[in-house]
Automatic annotation (TrEMBL):
It comes from the Bacteria. Its cofactor is pyridoxal 5'-phosphate. The keyword Transferase applies. Transmembrane segments: none annotated. This is Aspartate aminotransferase family protein. Keywords: Aminotransferase, Pyridoxal phosphate, Transferase. InterPro entries: Aminotrans_3, Class-III_PLP-dep_AT, PyrdxlP-dep_Trfase, PyrdxlP-dep_Trfase_major, PyrdxlP-dep_Trfase_small. One of its GO terms (molecular function) is transaminase activity. Belongs to the class-III pyridoxal-phosphate-dependent aminotransferase family.
Length: 406
C-alpha cells in the first residue's frame, strides 16, 4: 500500500530501516515493530524529545478531544490564546507575539512574509548549510542543492552567506535591501554544525544597524534539545524572532510557532487575515503545548546528565574508531557523527537498523549520522545505543573499501 498509494521511495526507505517490518506502537524512547522487535528511537528528526506517548501530553490532548477538538474559526479560541501566553512566558516575555503553525516550514514562511511586509524590502539573508523547510518560501532559505534542484527560481530573493564570516551580513545589509537575517544556532541537517555565538552577535548588531530583522530558527535545536529554552536568547542575542516546533506538540500532535517582537508582528496585528491557515492554532495541538513545555522543563536537569553520558560515549567511539570517524559535532542532545566517507555513514545506518537503534541521517550532509536522544531516555539507554553504534561502526569499517587501510 505504501508503494502504490504513497511513494515507492518511502516504501523502500521504510523497508530498509525496518528490515521488512513496520512500526506498530511506541512508548518512551522505544518503538515496537510488526515482527515483535523493539528499537531505541534516537531519531524521529527531533520530534520525540519527550519520547513517544508522554502521559501528561496525551492526557492534555485527550481532555481537549472530549470538549472542543476543532475550532469554528469564527469564535475566539481560548485554547490557542492560553498556549500563546504560555509560550511567551516560557521565553520570559522577551518576544510577546505568537503565530501557530503545524510544521516548521509554516513558521518560516510567516516569519519571512512579515519581515518583508514590515520593512518593505524583499531580500533575505540565510546561511550556507542551513535548512528551513521544503515549501517554496522556506526552500529558498534552505541551502542544500539536493532539495532545491529544479526549483531555484523561487519567489523569495535570498543570499546565502558563509557561517564563519563575521562581516558577511554587514556586506549584505548595508545596501538597505535586506528584510531579515535567518540562521540556526545549530544546523541540524548540516550534521549538527554549531555556529559561533560571536559571529551571530555581530550579525545581529549589523542587521539592527541597517533596519533588518534577525530570526533564530530553533525548530530543531531549541526547547532544551541543546540545553537551553532558546539558544539565541540564552546567549543574549537581540533577535527579533525565535522559531520553534518539532517537540512543541510533545511528540503527540503537530505544532510549530513563530515567537516574535511587536515590530515584526505589526503587519499581522493590523490585519489578522494577512496570513492564516485552517488548522493554525488547532485546539488539540495548543492543548498539548503547556503540558509539553512543563514536561521539558521538569526533565531539563536530567538532560544535562544525559549530555554528560553522551559525551563520554562519543569520546569512547572516537578513541576506538578514529580511522573512520572524522569529527563529532553538535551540542546537548543533538549530535552528528561525521564519518570519513558517505559510504561508511550509509553502512553504519544499515547496521544500526538491524541492531535496534533508529537514527536520523543528514541528507544535506550524507557522511554524517545524526543522534537525537530523547529527554526521557536513561543513561543505560545511552550506553545501549553506544554499544549498538560500536558494533555497527566496526562492521561498516571492515566492509567499506579502503577504510581499513586508512
Amino acid at each position: 500500500m505504501i508503494r502504490r498509494h504513497l511513494s515507492p521511495g518511502l516504501a523502500l526507505t521504510g523497508s530498509f530501516a525496518g528490515r521488512g517490518a513496520t512500526e506498530v506502537s511506541a512508548e518512551g524512547c522505544r518503538v515496537t515493530l510488526s515482527d515483535g522487535r523493539t528499537a531505541l528511537d534516537f531519531g524521529s528528526y527531533a520530534v520525540t524529545l519527550l519520547g513517544h506517548r508522554h502521559p501528561d501530553v496525551v492526557a492534555a490532548v485527550r481532555g481537549q478531544l472530549d470538549t472542543m477538538p476543532t475550532s469554528t474559526r469564527s469564535l475566539a479560541n481560548p485554547t490557542a490564546a492560553r498556549a500563546a501566553a504560555h509560550l511567551a512566558d516560557y521565553f520570559q516575555q522577551a518576544l510577546p507575539k505568537v503565530y501557530f503553525g503545524l510544521n516548521g516550514a509554516d513558521s518560516v514562511e510567516v516569519a519571512v512574509k512579515l519581515a518583508r511586509l514590515a520593512t518593505g524590502r524583499g531580500r533575505i539573508v540565510a546561511v550556507q548549510g542551513g535548512f528551513h523547510g521544503k515549501s517554496l518560501g522556506a526552500l529558498a532559505l534552505t541551502h542544500s542543492p539536493l532539495y532545491r534542484r529544479g526549483l531555484l527560481g523561487t519567489a523569495v530573493d535570498v543570499v546565502h552567506v558563509p557561517p564563519d564570516d563575521p562581516g558577511a551580513v554587514l556586506r549584505e545589509v548595508s545596501g538597505g535591501q535586506v528584510a531579515a537575517v535567518v540562521f540556526e544556532p545549530v544546523q541540524g541537517e548540516n550534521g549538527a554544525a554549531v555556529l559561533s555565538v560571536d559571529v551571530l552577535r555581530q550579525w545581529c548588531a549589523d542587521a539592527a544597524r541597517y533596519g533588518a530583522f534577525t530570526i533564530s530558527d530553533e525548530i530543531q535545536c531549541g526547547l532544551r534539545r541543546c540545553g537551553e529554552r532558546s539558544l539565541a536568547l540564552a546567549a543574549g542575542l537581540p533577535v527579533d524572532a525565535v522559531l520553534v516546533g518539532k517537540p512543541l506538540g510533545g511528540g503527540v500532535v503537530p505544532l510549530s510557532a513563530l515567537v516574535c517582537s511587536e515590530e515584526l508582528y505589526a503587519p499581522l496585528s493590523a490585519d489578522p487575515f494577512l496570513h492564516s491557515a485552517t488548522f493554525g492554532g488547532h485546539p488539540l495541538s495548543c492543548a498539548a503545548l503547556p503540558a509539553a513545555l512543563t514536561a521539558i522543563e521538569e526533565a531539563a536537569e536530567h538532560g544535562r546528565r544525559l549530555t554528560d553520558a553522551l559525551d563520554t560515549a562519543l569520546d569512547r567511539l572516537v578513541a576506538d574508531h578514529g580511522e573512520v570517524i572524522a569529527a563529532i559535532r553538535g551540542r546537548g542532545l543533538l549530535r552528528g557523527i561525521d564519518f570519513t566517507t558517505p559510504a561508511v555513514a550509509g553502512s553504519v545506518v544499515v547496521e544500526l537498523a538491524g541492531g535496534g537503534l533508529l537514527v536520523s541521517p543528514c541528507l544535506g550532509r550524507p557522511g554524517t549520522v545524526r543522534l537525537l536522544p530523547p529527554l526521557v531516555s536513561t543513561e543505560a539507554d545511552i550506553a545501549e545505543a553506544a554499544d549498538i553504534l560500536d558494533t555497527a561502526i566496526t562492521v561498516a569499517a571492515r566492509s567499506a573499501p579502503g577504510e581499513a587501510e586508512r
